[in-house]
Structures are given as C-alpha cells and as structure tokens.
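Researcher: Please predict.
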Amino acid sequence: MSGATRKTILGGVVLAGALAAGGLTTASLLGTGHGAGTTAALDAPTVAGQAGTDRLDAGTLQVAGAPRLAVMPTHAVVPARTQTRPTSRPRPAGTGSSAGPAAPAAGQPPSGQPSPPAPSSAATCAHPQYVTSDPSGMWNLSPYFVANNMWNVSGYNVSQTIHACSFSDWYVDATMNNSSGDGAVKTYPNSHRDFDSEPQISSFNSISSTFAETSPDSGIYEDAYDIWVNGIGTSTSTEVMIWTDNHGQTPSGSVQATVTLDGRSYTVWKTTGNYIAFVAKTNFTSGSMNLLAFFQWLMSKGWITSTATLGQVDYGPELVSTNGVPATFTFSNFSVNAS
C-alpha cells in the first residue's frame, strides 16, 4: 500500500445460533474491520451517504451473536518516510438485525450517491440474497462470512454497498478518492473462512483456495488474500497477505526475498513485526492457490513455527481510491479447502 500507516481490525465470528427458513440455515453478524490509515481511530465511522441497513431476501434469516474481534498490527504504507506503529484497539461490535429501514435494492447505491456501473459481465451474482451498505455489515454462512468491512472510513467521503449471492459469488460497488493524499486503505470488503478450532498447519496434507475477480483498470487498490496465523489479530498473530492483482499499492516493511510458488513469482515483504506480504510480480485475476506451500516456505525461513495454527483466510480488495467515481469489483469461485 502507499500512503500512511495502515491499521487493521478484522473479526472472525463465533456463531451464536442459526434459524432455518425455506430450507436454508444462515446467520448474519456484524463486527469486522480491516484496513489502513495514519493513526486511524477504529471507533464507529461516519460515512457519507450510507444507509446503514442490511437486506436479506425472503427465506434467509439473520441472527445476532457475539463477534470475535481481532486487534491487528498496523502496517506502513509510505515507503518514503519513517512509519509508526500506534497501539490499536477493538472497534465496538455492531448488531446483525435485518430490522429497520429498507436497504437499497440490489445494484442500487445509498441515497444521495451516484449510480455505480452495472456489474461486469464476469459477475455471476445476478440475484443477490444479501445486500448491505452498513460499514460493519456481515452475512454469516459459517464457516464462511461475507463482510462489507468499511473499517477506516471516518473522515473520508466513502460509499460502499456489497451484494452477495453466496460466500463464493459477490460484488461490491464503491466510491472514494485519495484527495487527502495520505494513501489510506479505507475498506476491505471480503469473503472469508474461519477455522474456529485453529488447527495446526502441520496437521493438514493440503490447504488450497480458488478465486476469480474482475476489477477496474483505474484507481488505487489491490486484490489480496489476508490470512491469519496463530490467532486472529492478537499480539502473537502473524498476518500473511498474498497480493494477486496490485494497482498502485506498496506493502509495509521491506523486501526480504523472492520466491516462486505454484509456478508464480512473488516479491516477499516483511515488517519487523508480524506482517508478511507476497506480492505477485505479474498480476493475475483467477487461479487455484496452494496455500500450504506458502506456509511451508514461511516455516523454512523460520518466520512462522512448525506448530503455527490457522485462524482465518480472507479474499477481497483493499480499497484506497476509485478516483471519486463509482466502481464495481466482482468476485466468484472463492473457496478454501483443507484436509
């Protein structure tokens, strides 16, 4: 990322209950956040034009529950100046009720915001079951979750609405700019899988993931995996990112190595803390990822131990700017498989 100190907060969620309706059992909870900024406050954000409501189609119910909040380390985003790592704190958890004013219809922006472009032809989510503009909106399809995750929008003019047909098939409409010039990551809409028992990575024979995305040619962002090892955002956690499609971003830390995994070459960035980013030398927008190979390489470097545990695997775009115009990011074929 390029711009300012990056602070992240992202909660894995403990399912408090589920209700069956129309043969589908789902639940939705709020309370994630992830992103960048200077010494950004993680309190409830003020968002221009946000409706702050969720919509679930008939036959899908939400159940509020106690989210698992993670206090994440900050990440530098301006290579040209000395970075600070201020102490982070959890943002208050939201609620997951579907009650309240109706959220915008699928594909429609919040009141007062310009209309986004139609989803790309690559998008397969024609009839979203879940739509939200709530900064902390989350659809619980445990062990998967789809999160709007507008963690760092306070003080910025940001509009964002997520539309999901499933955990593997969703898109997000966003409008924001970098007029402040600080390069702060403002949102990280994503789909992720939680591993609530946090098993040891060494206990798996295979950990893999698939994804496909279509993103604009303009703006400042990267599409990336965000993986949590040894807990989710605790003081002893390691955050491992894999940047697959980078548009104007620079990770925190410094280059420590280059490596070829799954036939693709990556530059590996690392901070003095527990943040590691694999940045693909050539952007790619879909694929099957052998995540276990990344973990085994990290173990060979001594950057994570042989007893390291797996907590969460996310995929989505870290958004800095859409140049002030509506932009649509589409995602499909997301999965995480471990055996």
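Model: The chain is about 5% helix and 40% strand.
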